[in-house]
Amino acid sequence: MPGKVLIVDDERSMCELIQTDLRIRGFASSWFTSATEALRAIKEEPFDVVLTDVRMPGTNGLQLCEQVAVNRPDIPVVVMTAFGSLETAVASIRAGAYDFITKPIEMDMLALTLERAVRQHHLQEQVKVLREAVGRSSRFGEMIGQSAAMHDLYDQLERIADSESSILIMGESGTGKELVARSIHKRSRRAQYPFVAVNCSAVPESLLESELFGHARGAFTDARTDRKGLFLEATGGTLFLDEIGEMPLLMQPKLLRALEESRLRPVGSDREVAFDVRLLSATNRDLEGAVEEKRFREDLFFRINVIAIEVPPLRARGTDVLLLAQHFVTTLAQRSGKNVVGISENTAERLLDYSWPGNVRELRNVMERAVALTRYDKIAVEDLPQKIRDYRRSQVYVGGDDPTELVSLEDLERRYILHVLQTVGDNKSVASRVLGLDRKTLYRKLKQYGVADDKP
Asked: What residues in the chain have per-residue pLDDT under 70?
């Protein structure tokens, strides 16, 4: 990660030598032979890291380090000296140095140290910008995110908010599909009327029809009075059917008929009732695959899928993970009365590396745990769960120039197919489109790889 380095050494030849080597490695740099000149340059130019000698006339390296730590704490300082004693190292760290390196300088080691320092600086800048962004209103309701994927989502939601068409919101579990639905409702012309939500997977099959359509007195045991269902409760407003992919097959034609006629018949009643709602549905399932496998009616799928919205997974949202983490830390710290103001730079690095299979819901749980456990004013790496601390990003490795590292075409295909499937949240319809395979071929290959097909 090349960056801009400020070199400070009272020996001109040393400055020129380091600058020449760093230029070859892709770093930009400026050099000065006194700390006073360096401090002036820091005020006038942007630098990612300061590299300074300790023994210099006038203001020495440790004093320079202290002044940078006070005035520009975001810029890491790397101290170099020919007197590599433990006492000098400790003094440097106490003065606020990021790291310590001894002369004669091993240039490869110096480059690695500077790369880490530049990364530290960039992470600090990101955390600062994201912390400030949390305090600003988001573009669309309560949704938080500044990534390209979220801006695309905002643009799409703005175009459809006032539409009366049925909308199917798709996305992995924990991505915030209900929040998207509520944001659409609040921007629609129905905003002053009710928003009614029901999780189709949470209602027993025997009660779902009554829950949606209502029932007449005496329709079944314990039906002592007439009861309006959720369709009528949402009259004038929005009805949100979450996890619609879990709706029982026997219930699907009844829902389809009601949607097509805008009329329903309460359980046990002999008359139909008109309703006026806008339908939003959501699923984390592969409904196209469910249609092909006759587990979801094709006509109902087309009826609820007039407009399709895809909510991006957290791993596809870049630095939004830091923006969300800061938001959760601020909210949870206020609720618990703890003095926690943010996350450390090393923590930010771990959060960016992790793949977040549980998406925003998982991130919130992790931050709630961290706020409860931390002993500092910023969330430290040790406050994160072990699986995040130890996580290593997976990659599809083709191989280098070493013949022993090369893999067969068959093995490479297997690795890539499984990688794509994991990346798209095990959605086989999406994976098929990405891979350019039909679903039957994909299923055959997965069976060949010994991958259990327990999820559509």
From this structure: 1-2, 83-86, 89, 127-141, 218-224, 393-407, 452-456
Task: Look at residues 263, 207, 210 and name the one whose alpha carbon lies nearest to residue 235.
Answer: 263
Q: Which of 79, 58, 56, 57 is nearest to 69 (CA)?
A: 79
Rounded to whole angstroms, the Cα distance separating 105 from 91 reads 19
Contact 307, 160 (CB under 8 A): yes
Structure-token match 């790397």, residue found: 78
Q: Which of 394, 393, 392, 369 is nearest to 382 (CA)?
A: 369
Domains assigned to the chain: 4-133 (3.40.50.2300), 148-310 (3.40.50.300), 314-389 (1.10.8.60), 403-449 (1.10.10.60)
Strands (E), 173-271: 195-199, 214-215, 227-228, 238-242, 263-264
The secondary structure of residue 393, as a DSSP letter, is -
Please report the beta strands in 159-272, taking only residues with DSSP state E, as ranges in sequence order: 167-170, 195-199, 214-215, 227-228, 238-242, 263-264
Between the two ends of the chain, the Cα-to-Cα distance in Å is 41
For 390-402, the pLDDT digits (tens) are 887 655 555 555 5
pLDDT in tens, 30-45: 999 988 899 989 888 8
> What is the separation of C-alpha 92 from the centre of its chain, rounded to a whole number of angstroms?
37
Is it true that the peptide bond before 2 is cis, omega within 30 degrees of 0?
no
For CA atoms 321, 324, 326, 332, give the dihedral sign.
Answer: negative
**Roughly what angle, to the nearest 10 degrees, separates helices 107-134 and 345-353?**
90
Q: Supply φ then ψ for residue 139, to 5 degrees.
A: -75, -25
CA 286, 206, 259: angle at the middle one, nearest 5? 55
d(Cα 120, Cα 345) in Å, to the nearest integer? Answer: 7
